[in-house]
Design a protein that fits this description.
This protein has 436 residues and is α/β, with parallel strands linked by helices. It contains 16 helices and 19 strands. The termini are far apart.
């Protein structure tokens, strides 16, 4: 089956699933392969549950006309997404970067969605499967799309750009992420800046946060760009794209100037100074795309962090800063320094190991512990094998997993403490706070 033929089928059956257990009436099931499964083996189940068709790449499973055979199911999904993307002549904003992609995407989408029919990446569906699924779920009346682009290796950002075909884009920042795949900070620069090079090649526009290291230089090939940054007094030549940081303890408060010269103040529910850049970006894109200032303010103030990203949770007399969706050396440093600013003398930093750092892991874990110990926290606690040797060096409380950590923590009977929970996804530090 050709992509044009598949597109005709998709036009009549626009809901796509890749998990046969979630298949329902009239769906299209794509039989994707993973390390431990072959979707072709579940095509019959999807059809039994009512799916209209199953897109498969194994001829042996095709027993009737409901099985649509393609050469490669994943490639067919990606090519179909590109084909559908080209149905739209709307702004498509790609968001890449080392840290803060999902929060920035959520904030930008909230701002845009307050004024335009907006479609955005759900959760962190930002890879070679998630981006196509995001595009294929786009309603026909969409006027602006916000697409998150993630990467672990050089070449992935470029690949995803050639599916999403963004007209606009931004990189949140450049940090020590996925060093196992990128190899080094220079590798991160090369990989993430593929977004800039795509925009340069296709006449797209880049939004560049001047306060972040490396971005302006990496964006040199882009002809159309908008520079923005933190302002102290709105006295610069272009105050529309300059945002003030009013405060950040514990929640970020920001201000910007409207077209009449009035100062609009936003009180967010986002913890930590590092979230100011995410808020600033949402304000700037809102201003650029002509979202009324009062809608920008309302959208950001109504946004609540979720999914273990910068969440503040009060349990008993203790306050927890749960930032455990993921971690790398750059985001870990930001979280520790923001936690330091909280107005309390009784702070406990619980740090989970940082995964996917490759050969840099031992050095990076030592440096993070050195930083944490320099903050005069009441206690630093380490979790996960990446921290085991460091814990022995400094005789710091150490736990192999969250189960033993939780048992220890509950036995301490802490009261009126601020507790930071920061670690990589695989550590699952959020289980510290799970009920039961």
């Amino acid at each position: 089956m050709t992509i044009d033929q598949l597109y005709d089928v998709y036009s009549q059956h626009r809901h796509i699933v890749t998990d046969s257990r979630k298949a329902g009436p009239d769906d299209l099931f794509f039989a994707l392969k993973g390390d431990r499964f072959d979707g072709n083996q579940f095509a019959r189940q999807a059809l039994a549950q009512g799916a209209a068709y199953a897109i498969v790449d194994n001829p042996a499973v095709c027993t009737d006309e409901r099985y649509l055979l393609v050469e490669d199911a994943l490639q067919a999904l990606q090519q179909l997404a590109l084909r559908f993307r080209r149905h739209f002549s709307i702004p498509v904003v790609a968001i890449a970067g080392s840290n803060g992609k999902t929060t920035t995407k959520d904030l930008v989408s909230a701002v845009m969605g307050s004024h335009y029919p907006t479609h955005c990446t759900q959760g962190n569906f930002n890879n070679h499967i998630g981006v196509p699924l995001t595009l294929l779920a786009m309603p026909l009346h969409t006027e602006i799309a916000i697409i998150e682009i993630g990467a672990n290796n050089i070449g992935e950002v470029d690949f995803l750009c050639r599916i999403a075909e963004p007209t606009h884009g931004l990189i949140t920042n450049i940090g020590k992420e996925h060093l196992e795949g990128f190899g080094s900070l220079e590798g991160v620069k090369q990989g993430e800046s593929e977004l800039y090079r795509y925009l340069a090649e296709h006449g797209g526009m880049a939004f560049i946060n001047q306060d972040e290291a490396f971005l302006e230089a990496l964006a040199a090939p882009v002809q159309k760009k908008l520079l923005y940054g933190q302002s102290e007094d709105f006295s610069a030549n272009n105050p529309v794209y300059e945002i003030q940081l009013v405060g950040a303890a514990p929640f970020v408060k920001a201000a910007f100037m409207d077209d009449e010269g009035q100062i609009i103040t936003i009180q967010s529910q986002l913890f930590g100074k590092y979230n100011f850049a995410n808020i600033m970006t949402a304000i700037v894109l809102g201003r650029y795309f002509k979202v009324p200032p009062h809608k920008i303010k309302a959208a950001i103030e109504q946004y609540r962090p979720r999914s273990n990203r910068s969440e503040i949770k009060t349990i008993g007399s203790n306050t927890f800063v749960l930032d455990a969706y993921n971690a790398n050396p750059s985001s870990m440093e930001q979280a520790i320094c923001s936690f330091r600013e909280l107005p309390s003398e009784h702070k406990i930093a619980i740090l989970g190991e940082m995964l996917e750092l490759g050969d840099a892991a031992p050095t990076e874990h030592v440096q993070i512990v050195e930083l944490a110990l320099a903050q005069d926290f009441e206690q630093v606690v380490l979790v996960g094998s990446g921290f085991e040797q460091v814990a022995k060096m400094w005789q710091i409380p150490y736990f192999q997993n969250v189960t033993t950590l939780r048992q220890w923590f509950e036995g301490q009977a802490f009261q009126q403490r601020y507790v930071l929970l920061k670690g990589s996804r695989g550590v699952q530090l959020e289980k510290m706070l799970a009920e039961g």
